[in-house]
Amino acid sequence: MVTAFWEQVARGSFRDVTGVHLDAHTRSAVERLCLLVGDGGSPLLISHLKDLLQQVWVRRFDLDTTREDVQAATAFMASGIVGILGQFAGRPCDALFDAHLATIGRVFTGPALAFAKGISPEA
Fold first, then answer.
1. What 3-state DSSP class applies to 79?
2. Which pLDDT value is given to residue 15?
3. What are phi and psi of 19, to 5 degrees?
């Protein structure tokens, strides 16, 4: 379920993740995930989630993982996303969560993925 959510985010354009719609079942799964990666979360689970996020982006955007700069950018993105999820531990993934996700997409994710793909973020 959570993988499907990140696949949905990845299908969006570089700059627009505001169109991501979380159905009630997916939103509930993301809220549980937030609890697992929040304060006191499992370091192993957090590591696995970061790896999963990177794999989704690599697959979706056909990223060249032999490039050190691509590895650095995707690792940074994954850490940031997991950090945001951890901030929502015990809180509802409501409109504020959606706004955080949209801001990340607008400000960082689009340009970072464009960098990793070797294209201009303005494209």
1. helix
2. 44
3. -85, 0
